[in-house]
Amino acid sequence: MKAFNKATLIGFSSILIWASLVAVVKLITESLSPVSAIALIYSFSAMTILVLNGLPRFKQMSKAYLWGCGALFVAYEILFLVSIALSHNHDQVLIIAMINYLWPPLTIIFSILAKQLNYRWPVIVGFIVSVLGLLLVVNPDILNLRQFLHILQQNPIAYFFAFLGALLWPCYSVLTKKYAQGQNAVPLFFVVTAVSLWGIHFMMDEAFIFPQLNMWLLIAVTGALVGIAYSNWNQSLQFGNIKLLILATYFMPVLSSFMSMLILEATPSLSFWIGTCLVTFGAMICWKSTAEI
Q1: pLDDT single digits (tens) 176-199
Q2: Hey, CA dihedral for 87, 90, 91, 95, is it positive or negative?
Q3: What are phi and psi of 38, to 5 degrees?
Q4: Domain boundaries defined on the chain
Protein backbone atom coordinates (compact mmCIF):
# COMPACT_ATOMS: atom_id res chain seq x y z
CA MET A 1 0.00 0.00 0.00
CA LYS A 2 1.39 3.40 -0.90
CA ALA A 3 2.00 5.67 2.08
CA PHE A 4 0.46 8.73 0.41
CA ASN A 5 -2.40 7.37 -1.65
CA LYS A 6 -5.58 9.41 -2.13
CA ALA A 7 -7.39 7.79 0.80
CA THR A 8 -4.54 8.68 3.15
CA LEU A 9 -4.44 12.29 1.99
CA ILE A 10 -8.17 12.82 2.51
CA GLY A 11 -7.72 11.35 5.97
CA PHE A 12 -5.22 14.16 6.66
CA SER A 13 -7.85 16.72 5.64
CA SER A 14 -10.23 15.24 8.22
CA ILE A 15 -7.61 15.69 10.91
CA LEU A 16 -7.19 19.36 10.05
CA ILE A 17 -10.94 19.94 10.32
CA TRP A 18 -11.19 18.09 13.64
CA ALA A 19 -8.33 20.13 15.08
CA SER A 20 -10.47 23.28 14.97
CA LEU A 21 -13.78 21.58 15.81
CA VAL A 22 -13.54 21.78 19.61
CA ALA A 23 -13.08 25.55 19.75
CA VAL A 24 -15.75 26.30 17.13
CA VAL A 25 -18.33 24.03 18.79
CA LYS A 26 -17.67 25.74 22.12
CA LEU A 27 -18.21 29.17 20.56
CA ILE A 28 -21.52 28.09 19.03
CA THR A 29 -22.82 26.39 22.20
CA GLU A 30 -21.95 29.48 24.26
CA SER A 31 -24.25 31.61 22.09
CA LEU A 32 -27.17 29.14 21.92
CA SER A 33 -28.72 26.45 24.08
CA PRO A 34 -26.04 23.73 24.08
CA VAL A 35 -27.77 20.56 22.85
CA SER A 36 -29.89 22.33 20.24
CA ALA A 37 -26.74 24.06 18.93
CA ILE A 38 -25.02 20.69 18.50
CA ALA A 39 -28.17 19.26 16.91
CA LEU A 40 -28.20 22.11 14.40
CA ILE A 41 -24.55 21.52 13.49
CA TYR A 42 -25.10 17.82 12.94
CA SER A 43 -28.30 18.40 10.99
CA PHE A 44 -26.23 20.33 8.46
CA SER A 45 -23.59 17.60 8.58
CA ALA A 46 -26.19 14.94 7.81
CA MET A 47 -27.64 16.96 4.93
CA THR A 48 -24.18 17.56 3.47
CA ILE A 49 -23.28 13.89 3.45
CA LEU A 50 -26.65 12.88 2.01
CA VAL A 51 -26.23 15.40 -0.82
CA LEU A 52 -22.69 14.22 -1.58
CA ASN A 53 -23.11 10.48 -1.15
CA GLY A 54 -26.82 9.67 -1.02
CA LEU A 55 -28.24 6.94 1.16
CA PRO A 56 -26.09 3.82 1.42
CA ARG A 57 -27.27 0.41 0.24
CA PHE A 58 -28.12 -1.21 3.52
CA LYS A 59 -28.72 -4.71 2.14
CA GLN A 60 -25.07 -4.99 1.07
CA MET A 61 -23.72 -4.14 4.53
CA SER A 62 -22.89 -6.53 7.32
CA LYS A 63 -25.11 -6.21 10.38
CA ALA A 64 -22.03 -5.96 12.58
CA TYR A 65 -20.96 -2.81 10.73
CA LEU A 66 -24.40 -1.28 10.34
CA TRP A 67 -25.62 -1.80 13.90
CA GLY A 68 -22.44 -2.24 15.92
CA CYS A 69 -20.27 0.44 14.33
CA GLY A 70 -23.30 2.69 13.92
CA ALA A 71 -24.09 2.55 17.64
CA LEU A 72 -20.46 3.30 18.51
CA PHE A 73 -20.38 6.25 16.11
CA VAL A 74 -23.56 7.83 17.43
CA ALA A 75 -22.60 7.30 21.07
CA TYR A 76 -19.13 8.81 20.57
CA GLU A 77 -20.41 11.91 18.81
CA ILE A 78 -23.04 12.63 21.44
CA LEU A 79 -20.70 12.05 24.38
CA PHE A 80 -17.85 14.14 22.99
CA LEU A 81 -19.97 17.06 21.82
CA VAL A 82 -22.04 17.18 25.00
CA SER A 83 -18.85 17.12 27.07
CA ILE A 84 -17.69 20.26 25.24
CA ALA A 85 -21.07 21.92 25.78
CA LEU A 86 -20.95 21.08 29.51
CA SER A 87 -17.54 22.69 30.04
CA HIS A 88 -17.68 25.61 32.46
CA ASN A 89 -14.90 27.67 30.89
CA HIS A 90 -12.34 27.64 28.11
CA ASP A 91 -9.65 26.04 30.28
CA GLN A 92 -11.94 23.05 30.82
CA VAL A 93 -12.49 22.85 27.05
CA LEU A 94 -8.75 22.31 26.60
CA ILE A 95 -8.72 19.55 29.23
CA ILE A 96 -11.77 17.84 27.69
CA ALA A 97 -10.13 17.96 24.27
CA MET A 98 -6.98 16.35 25.65
CA ILE A 99 -8.97 13.61 27.40
CA ASN A 100 -10.67 12.93 24.08
CA TYR A 101 -7.23 12.64 22.46
CA LEU A 102 -6.62 9.45 24.36
CA TRP A 103 -8.28 7.78 21.38
CA PRO A 104 -5.19 7.80 19.10
CA PRO A 105 -2.97 5.74 21.47
CA LEU A 106 -5.97 3.60 22.36
CA THR A 107 -6.54 2.97 18.65
CA ILE A 108 -3.00 1.60 18.44
CA ILE A 109 -3.61 -0.69 21.41
CA PHE A 110 -7.00 -1.87 20.14
CA SER A 111 -5.60 -2.44 16.63
CA ILE A 112 -2.89 -4.63 18.14
CA LEU A 113 -5.46 -6.59 20.15
CA ALA A 114 -7.54 -7.00 16.98
CA LYS A 115 -4.42 -8.29 15.19
CA GLN A 116 -4.49 -5.48 12.64
CA LEU A 117 -1.00 -4.31 13.62
CA ASN A 118 2.23 -6.06 14.52
CA TYR A 119 4.19 -4.45 17.35
CA ARG A 120 7.42 -4.40 19.34
CA TRP A 121 7.70 -3.79 23.07
CA PRO A 122 8.56 -0.02 22.84
CA VAL A 123 4.91 0.57 21.90
CA ILE A 124 4.13 0.12 25.61
CA VAL A 125 6.62 2.85 26.48
CA GLY A 126 5.07 5.16 23.89
CA PHE A 127 1.59 4.60 25.27
CA ILE A 128 2.75 5.29 28.84
CA VAL A 129 4.50 8.51 27.74
CA SER A 130 1.30 9.67 26.02
CA VAL A 131 -0.81 8.96 29.09
CA LEU A 132 1.69 10.78 31.34
CA GLY A 133 1.50 13.74 28.97
CA LEU A 134 -2.28 13.77 29.29
CA LEU A 135 -2.07 13.57 33.09
CA LEU A 136 0.31 16.55 33.06
CA VAL A 137 -2.20 18.53 31.01
CA VAL A 138 -5.01 17.78 33.46
CA ASN A 139 -2.89 18.33 36.58
CA PRO A 140 0.48 20.14 36.38
CA ASP A 141 1.34 18.78 39.84
CA ILE A 142 1.25 15.28 38.42
CA LEU A 143 2.16 13.51 41.69
CA ASN A 144 -0.54 15.27 43.70
CA LEU A 145 -3.44 12.81 43.57
CA ARG A 146 -5.65 14.99 45.74
CA GLN A 147 -5.25 17.92 43.35
CA PHE A 148 -5.97 15.63 40.40
CA LEU A 149 -9.21 14.43 41.98
CA HIS A 150 -10.14 18.01 42.87
CA ILE A 151 -9.81 19.05 39.22
CA LEU A 152 -11.94 16.13 38.05
CA GLN A 153 -14.59 16.93 40.65
CA GLN A 154 -15.04 20.41 39.19
CA ASN A 155 -16.87 18.89 36.20
CA PRO A 156 -17.04 15.09 36.58
CA ILE A 157 -19.83 14.51 34.04
CA ALA A 158 -18.08 16.38 31.22
CA TYR A 159 -14.75 14.68 31.90
CA PHE A 160 -16.38 11.25 32.15
CA PHE A 161 -18.24 11.74 28.88
CA ALA A 162 -14.99 12.76 27.16
CA PHE A 163 -13.17 9.72 28.56
CA LEU A 164 -15.94 7.32 27.59
CA GLY A 165 -15.93 8.78 24.09
CA ALA A 166 -12.17 8.26 23.92
CA LEU A 167 -12.79 4.55 24.53
CA LEU A 168 -15.61 4.23 22.00
CA TRP A 169 -13.92 5.84 18.98
CA PRO A 170 -11.01 3.35 18.79
CA CYS A 171 -13.60 0.56 18.92
CA TYR A 172 -15.40 2.17 15.99
CA SER A 173 -12.16 2.60 14.02
CA VAL A 174 -10.99 -0.99 14.52
CA LEU A 175 -14.39 -2.57 13.85
CA THR A 176 -14.98 -0.40 10.78
CA LYS A 177 -11.76 -1.66 9.23
CA LYS A 178 -12.84 -5.24 9.98
CA TYR A 179 -16.52 -5.23 9.04
CA ALA A 180 -17.21 -2.33 6.64
CA GLN A 181 -15.91 -4.28 3.61
CA GLY A 182 -15.70 -1.15 1.48
CA GLN A 183 -19.18 0.10 2.44
CA ASN A 184 -19.89 3.54 3.88
CA ALA A 185 -22.86 4.01 6.20
CA VAL A 186 -21.65 7.35 7.62
CA PRO A 187 -24.62 9.23 6.03
CA LEU A 188 -27.01 7.04 8.00
CA PHE A 189 -24.90 7.38 11.16
CA PHE A 190 -25.08 11.16 10.92
CA VAL A 191 -28.83 11.17 10.40
CA VAL A 192 -29.28 9.00 13.49
CA THR A 193 -26.90 11.22 15.46
CA ALA A 194 -28.80 14.39 14.49
CA VAL A 195 -32.18 12.82 15.31
CA SER A 196 -30.84 11.55 18.64
CA LEU A 197 -29.53 15.00 19.56
CA TRP A 198 -32.90 16.59 18.79
CA GLY A 199 -34.52 13.89 20.90
CA ILE A 200 -32.23 14.72 23.82
CA HIS A 201 -32.98 18.43 23.33
CA PHE A 202 -36.73 17.88 23.60
CA MET A 203 -36.48 15.38 26.47
CA MET A 204 -34.43 17.91 28.45
CA ASP A 205 -37.08 20.53 27.75
CA GLU A 206 -34.24 22.81 26.75
CA ALA A 207 -35.09 26.31 25.55
CA PHE A 208 -34.44 26.92 21.85
CA ILE A 209 -32.58 30.12 21.03
CA PHE A 210 -33.05 31.12 17.40
CA PRO A 211 -29.63 31.91 15.88
CA GLN A 212 -28.85 35.22 14.22
CA LEU A 213 -27.74 35.28 10.58
CA ASN A 214 -24.00 35.21 11.29
CA MET A 215 -24.49 32.28 13.66
CA TRP A 216 -26.54 30.42 11.03
CA LEU A 217 -23.63 30.81 8.62
CA LEU A 218 -21.13 29.54 11.19
CA ILE A 219 -23.36 26.55 12.01
CA ALA A 220 -23.86 25.70 8.32
CA VAL A 221 -20.15 25.89 7.47
CA THR A 222 -19.12 23.95 10.57
CA GLY A 223 -21.72 21.28 9.99
CA ALA A 224 -20.76 20.84 6.35
CA LEU A 225 -17.05 20.56 7.15
CA VAL A 226 -17.68 18.06 9.94
CA GLY A 227 -19.77 15.91 7.62
CA ILE A 228 -17.10 15.95 4.93
CA ALA A 229 -14.37 15.14 7.45
CA TYR A 230 -16.10 12.08 8.81
CA SER A 231 -17.07 10.82 5.40
CA ASN A 232 -13.45 11.11 4.32
CA TRP A 233 -12.17 9.43 7.47
CA ASN A 234 -14.39 6.42 6.94
CA GLN A 235 -12.89 5.92 3.49
CA SER A 236 -9.33 6.50 4.70
CA LEU A 237 -9.75 3.86 7.43
CA GLN A 238 -10.63 1.27 4.83
CA PHE A 239 -8.30 2.16 1.96
CA GLY A 240 -5.61 4.41 3.42
CA ASN A 241 -2.42 3.75 5.36
CA ILE A 242 -3.87 3.33 8.84
CA LYS A 243 -0.45 3.39 10.49
CA LEU A 244 0.39 6.77 8.95
CA LEU A 245 -3.07 8.14 9.72
CA ILE A 246 -2.81 7.06 13.34
CA LEU A 247 0.56 8.81 13.54
CA ALA A 248 -0.98 12.01 12.15
CA THR A 249 -3.75 11.91 14.76
CA TYR A 250 -1.13 12.22 17.47
CA PHE A 251 -0.35 15.72 16.25
CA MET A 252 -3.98 16.73 16.75
CA PRO A 253 -3.46 17.71 20.42
CA VAL A 254 -0.82 20.29 19.47
CA LEU A 255 -2.77 21.61 16.49
CA SER A 256 -6.13 21.59 18.31
CA SER A 257 -4.65 23.33 21.35
CA PHE A 258 -3.11 26.00 19.14
CA MET A 259 -6.40 26.57 17.29
CA SER A 260 -8.32 26.70 20.57
CA MET A 261 -5.84 29.20 21.98
CA LEU A 262 -6.46 31.48 19.00
CA ILE A 263 -10.22 31.03 18.66
CA LEU A 264 -11.15 30.94 22.35
CA GLU A 265 -8.39 33.31 23.48
CA ALA A 266 -7.31 30.78 26.08
CA THR A 267 -3.84 30.86 27.61
CA PRO A 268 -2.50 27.34 28.24
CA SER A 269 0.26 26.98 30.82
CA LEU A 270 3.78 25.76 30.11
CA SER A 271 2.95 22.39 31.69
CA PHE A 272 0.02 22.09 29.28
CA TRP A 273 2.31 22.45 26.26
CA ILE A 274 4.89 20.07 27.76
CA GLY A 275 2.16 17.48 28.31
CA THR A 276 0.87 17.99 24.78
CA CYS A 277 4.35 17.45 23.36
CA LEU A 278 4.73 14.28 25.45
CA VAL A 279 1.54 12.94 23.88
CA THR A 280 3.04 13.54 20.45
CA PHE A 281 6.42 12.07 21.44
CA GLY A 282 4.71 8.96 22.77
CA ALA A 283 2.89 8.71 19.45
CA MET A 284 6.14 8.69 17.56
CA ILE A 285 7.37 5.79 19.69
CA CYS A 286 4.14 3.88 19.08
CA TRP A 287 4.30 4.58 15.35
CA LYS A 288 7.87 3.34 15.07
CA SER A 289 7.00 0.19 17.05
CA THR A 290 4.08 -1.04 14.93
CA ALA A 291 3.52 -2.30 11.41
CA GLU A 292 0.40 -3.25 9.45
CA ILE A 293 -0.24 -6.98 9.10
Answers
A1: 888 888 788 888 999 999 999 999
A2: positive
A3: -65, -40
A4: 6-292
